[in-house]
Design a protein that fits this description.
The complex is a heterodimer of chains A (about 210) and B (about 180). With about 210 residues, chain A is mostly helical. Chain A is built from 3 helices and no strands. Chain A is rod-shaped and about 205 Å long. The N and C termini of chain A lie far apart (about 135 Å). Chain B is of the alpha+beta class and about 180 residues long. Chain B folds into 2 domains: about 100 residues, N-terminal domain of the delta subunit of the F1F0-ATP synthase (Peroxidase, domain 1); about 80 residues, 3-Layer(aba) Sandwich (Glutaredoxin), CATH 3.40.30. In chain B, strands 2-1-3-4 form a 4-stranded mixed β-sheet. The radius of gyration of chain B is 21 Å and the shape is elongated. Classes of the chains: A mainly alpha (about 210), B alpha+beta (about 180).
């Protein structure tokens, strides 16, 4: 883009230099030709008498042409041309910049479209993954809950069995103690010397070899 | 039984055996321990605050009262000098063990629910002499909590024929019984 603008500016400069060279070449020619033209016009005037003053008219036309040339060709036209060239360059540059911006915008749009497309895919993947994780967690929680329920039930059964066993043992212990207390009371009331002799005899039978 | 009591008992037993006075010394030691073990005298005689000048007259009085041999009298003096009179019972107990071992004797503690006649005591002692093949020295105590029967302790072994123990065994059997079996 910059190379193209530089080339356009070079062409405009060469054009302006050729115009200046042409103007510089024509001006001395006109200055040299002016006295000859004035003398010819003066001679023609003397010959014709009261006719149209061609010499004066021609001189005026030439003078007018020079005026037009100097004013427009050397003054306004170059300015207009340079203005037009500068505007053209600016317009070209702006068009190029607009094209560049458009391309960049297009690229950005494509990138964003790609991103949006990827984003939708990622969202879908995340959603699927979240659903799978949630399902997995749900199954795991249910499995844990079932295992916990089984364990709690087993613990409860074990605790109940232990409690029953402990109560039975306590009951047997109480029954044994009560039976012994009753037996002790009866023995104290009813045991006799003969019973004591019999106990000693039994003991001696066990001791004797 | 402290190591100190064992050492003193071993020392007096060795001297008594040298003089062939094992049983006599044992009897004198037992009598002295019995006399010095009376609460009023034991508290005074074993006090570390009692000076030897005051303790020796008491021991002399005991010696005269019990007609102790010089060996036992001197032994009591040594115990007093070393403030070991408080361990006289343990020393006598250890001495008796060594004496019994030396003479092949064994001591029986016979506990009965009701008092035993002399014949029954002799019968029990004879039964243990036959069983243990040793001379026994019985000591009888009455313990009504046994309810009935006899309990004999000999050399750390308990021969239990009491009704109380049988009832306790019955109680344990009831407690151990399994109703589901």
């Amino acid at each position: 883009m910059r190379h193209r603008a530089t080339a356009a500016a070079g062409r405009a400069h060469r054009r302006r230099r050729s115009r200046w060279s042409l103007t510089a070449g024509m001006a001395p020619s006109l200055l040299i030709a002016l006295p000859a033209l004035a003398a010819a016009a003066e001679e023609g005037g003397h010959e014709s008498g009261h006719g149209i003053p061609w010499m004066t008219l021609g001189f005026a036309c030439i003078n007018f042409g020079l005026f037009i040339y100097v004013i427009f060709v050397r003054g306004i036209l170059p300015s207009l041309r340079s203005y037009a060239l500068a505007r053209r360059d600016r317009v070209v540059r702006e068009i190029e910049e607009a094209s560049k911006a458009r391309a960049e915008a297009e690229q950005l749009r494509q990138e964003w479209e790609q991103r949006v497309e990827n984003l939708e895919r990622e969202i879908a993947e995340i959603r699927d993954r979240a659903l799978a994780d949630a399902q997995h967690d749900r199954e795991k929680i249910l499995a844990d809950a079932r295992a916990a329920a089984v364990a709690i039930e087993a613990d409860a059964r074990r605790a109940a069995a232990q409690e029953i066993h402990r109560a039975e043992a306590q009951l047997r212990d109480d029954v044994g103690r009560e039976a012994v207390a009753i037996a002790e009371r009866l023995l104290r009331e009813r045991i006799t010397k003969d019973d004591q002799h019999r106990f000693v005899d039994d003991f001696l039978r066990q001791v004797r070899p | 039984m402290s190591a100190v009591a064992r050492r003193y008992a071993k020392a007096i037993f060795g001297l008594a055996r040298e003089q062939k006075q094992v049983e006599a010394v044992g009897a004198e030691l037992g009598a002295a321990a019995h006399l010095l073990g009376t609460p009023a005298l034991a508290e005074v005689i074993s006090s570390p605050l009692l000076s030897p000048a005051r303790r020796n007259p008491i021991l002399d009085a005991v010696r005269q009262q019990l007609s102790l041999s010089p060996l036992v009298a001197n032994f009591l003096g040594v115990l007093g000098d070393h403030l070991r009179l408080g361990q006289l019972d343990a020393i006598v107990d250890q001495y008796q063990r060594q004496e019994d071992r030396e003479l092949g004797r064994i001591r029986l503690l016979i506990r009965t629910a009701a008092s035993l006649s002399g014949d029954r005591q002799t019968e029990i002692a004879g039964a243990f002499e036959q069983a243990l093949r040793k001379t026994v020295i019985p000591r009888v105590e009455t313990d009504p909590s046994l309810l009935g029967g006899v309990v004999v302790e000999a050399e750390g072994t308990v021969y239990d024929g009491s009704v109380r123990t049988q009832l306790e065994r019955l109680s344990r059997e009831i407690a151990r019984s399994d109703t589901h079996a």
